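Predict the 3D structure for this chain.
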Amino acid sequence: MRLVRYRLDGQTGRGAVVGDLVHELSDGVPGRVAGTLGDVQLLAPCEPRVIVCAGSNYADQIAEKGRPWPEQPSLFLKAPNAIVGPGAEILRPAEVRRLEYEGELAVVVGRTARGVRADRAADFVLGYTCANDVTAHDWRADGQWTRAKSADTFCPLGPWIETEPPDPAAMRITTRLRGQVVQRGSVADVVFGIGELLAFVTRWITLEPGDVLLTGSPAGVGPMVPGDDVEVEISGIGTLRNVVAERP
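Done. Predicted structure below.
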């Protein structure tokens, strides 16, 4: 099932996409048709209170950057204010010279997760969506990444949550900038899999339904500028598209 949040006629709703139709959800079951995908404005498909991210989690990116092989996941947070949906603008602050895209697979939590065992992680996953871990490269010099990762619009998610995807390890991530492929990777190439990440995170951080885990980005991270359109496509899920604009 493809789960969405949408806005139609000034009202926000939750639904399921079947073909080109958006059905209202009633007790988790698709009900009456609210409209077509062309009728509604898709929003970020969830509203996480916690967004946990894994850094340097793809073998090709580690090799590209010349970084040492990690012994355990490297975690950081993005703030919920960074969330925007498909089609929304990514706003580059005027003082940022290098704004970067990072196409990623996002895991959406389905039930309270605390002390999760890696081999039981799937029991706690609602589904998967596409993410762009937008980063202000200039602000990494802060010594911690709060500002670099959490400015408004720095976490596009969407277009929906796919609850029945193929094996995540078989998914492929493709990022396009102005229609040109700039990242291409396989989720099979992660250093720490979804189960390992959820087990590691939930040893200390309790995740609730709707919370999000970003699983890292493959090689090819690079800059984007106002006027660029950027797409993150994940096989078996869909395509997240946003446009970069200058922040007023």
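The chain has two domains: 1-43, 44-246.
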